[in-house]
Amino acid sequence: MRFLSIFRKNLTEQFRNFWILILVVICAPIFVFGYWLFIGGGGSTTYDVVVINEDAGWTLPDGRIFSGGEEIIPLIETVTYPDGQPILDVAVGTDRAEVEAQLRNRDVDALLIIPEDFSRVLIAAMETPAVAETSEPTTTAITLVGDLTNPYYAVAAVMASTAVEDYVTAVTGDERPVGYEEIALGASAARTEFEIYVPGLLVFSVVMLIFPAAMDAAREIESGTLRRLQLTRMTARDFLLGASAVQTLVGVVSITLAFLTATALGFRSLGPLWVAMLVGAVSALSVVGVGLVVAAFSRTVTEAFVIANFPLIVLMFFSGVMFPLPGVPLFTVAGHTIGLYDILPLTHGIVALNKVLVMGAGLGDIGFELSALLVLTAIYFAVGIVLFRRRHMRAQ
Predict the structure, then answer these.
(1) Do 142 and 77 have their domain in common?
(2) What's the CATH code of the domain at 168?
(3) Mean pLDDT throughout 30-51?
(4) 284 close to 202: Cβ distance less than 8 angstroms
(5) Which end of the chain is more exposed for a tag (fewer CB within 10 A), N or C?
(6) Does residue 187 sit within a domain?
């Protein structure tokens, strides 16, 4: 069969370009390991908060000194992730100017200042007669200082102020009229920051296939091999499917190594691994399909490399691989909202992988995403084959 002949030929050429093959395969594990190092060994982000305690304390009727400021600092330090890792790294400061300089340099994330009358106001709120008879004000304010352009500041400030509010409520007995309950989907609350980003990193590993998929086809055009193959009555479909099968195989190897690397660094999949690998394989195939469209517009390897950068950027930044994107709904199909970015196959691939790896979903739970991924893959392949035949195989 011509398809098998093309497959064997391209597979042999992959091993001839050994170092390029190695770079493509190990790219994803390197990204996974690099991100693991970036966030500090697979744990979750810790935010640096400096507390300046200006509280003067308050003398109780029995002579004891009540200091709410000193009591609250250890409570802020107890704010942790569900797995017990600390969210806030708290340090006690004294010089506000020095801490503000650290904030500007982003050496710390937030400054919390406990006011001088903090303890007195807490006692007054409990209606202690010794304080209630005075004309002193019974309100005060905690001061938060930080760089609002620093995304870490918002998290650190919210976490620290929440700890303060909980303490004030416990001391004064001021019950809140509305309670809050948070329900985490699956085991998402127990995932480390590293584990949350692994699905995106796995999909990112197959995005790089767009380069070899486009460049290998362009190489056959530039070298004249494609014309010689046409003498064997080879069709565009035979040529492109055979070449694509090899690239898909490389993608499966790459995503497998990336997953093994993530597992060795502490990642845990809650769903069936074979389902995750199926999604990864189809995602790789979809990227190869995009690469075929690029090859259709390329006559040299250099052209293929340059052109491939444009769909690479689109796939990386508009499919949710690098960061979540706001939805741009267009219409609804079978109860599923179709958005602007859903024309990109990897948009569905990243959602499916998140469901399987993080939420513990099975094959039946990702039916819509997998179907959309398969349909889009078929469309990109069909477009690539038609364009390639018209532009490079007109003699057929």
Answers:
(1) yes
(2) 3.40.1710
(3) 69
(4) no
(5) N
(6) no
